[in-house]
Amino acid sequence: MSMDFTDRVVLITGAGGGFGREAAQRFAQAGARLVLTDRDADALAESVAALPASADGTPARPVVQIGDIAQAATMDAVVDAGIAEFGRIDVAINNAGIAPDLMRLSDTPASVMEQVMQVNVLGTFHGMRRQIAVMQEQFRSDGRGGVILNVASVAGLVGAPLLAAYAASKHAVVGLTRSAALETAKRGVRINALCPSFAATPMVDAMVESMQHEPDEALARLVSSVPMGRTATAAEVVEAMLWICSDANSFMTGQTVTLDGGLSAG
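and the corresponding structure tokens:
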């Protein structure tokens, strides 16, 4: 399905790799003007270099901001920079997140739990707090609000053995999504969550490396619970992002869209 985001301003966190890098490329191809952030300056520069040129051959010129989304000041700076350049934020994809190595809850250090919650939950909260305020003001001003998509996980909907901290953080993201969607439904802002399972991203690669098996065997064990028997591709997940954020999906808010190869169906 072709999605048109011509002249829409799309903010993407965690744009230095994985879903974020793929999303930046696809939204750029769909005509969006981009506001990109990541804490890894080199990775973000690689994402920018990979962006397609416009139809007339003009290089992409996204707004770029380096910083840690766990800090409120980072998201303030990202949103302010986007508004200074483009005048508005139409779509925000809160994608940045981290996952610890696989471990039992009883073996999880408090410091690991705190870090995961700070990035995955507080980072999403800081983003939503500013994004909602901006989009509601846009709606009051010109009748065009905005769309927020939080990248959660199937681990935010079901139990995830050996990933308790990560699952807790993604359950919290789902809770933030549903609550804020109810608050903003009449104020011009649609808010949903995307819940993928294992996908071919650096995060899952790191998870595989942490397992005490050869890489092929570790990956097979990881996806053994997925009925389709494989990981998702980043492209598959991002195609869902485009649809969720598009005008073609204008009546959806407060939902968790599960993209998990059937994992949660049983």
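(Above: one complete record from the training split.) The mean pLDDT is 92.
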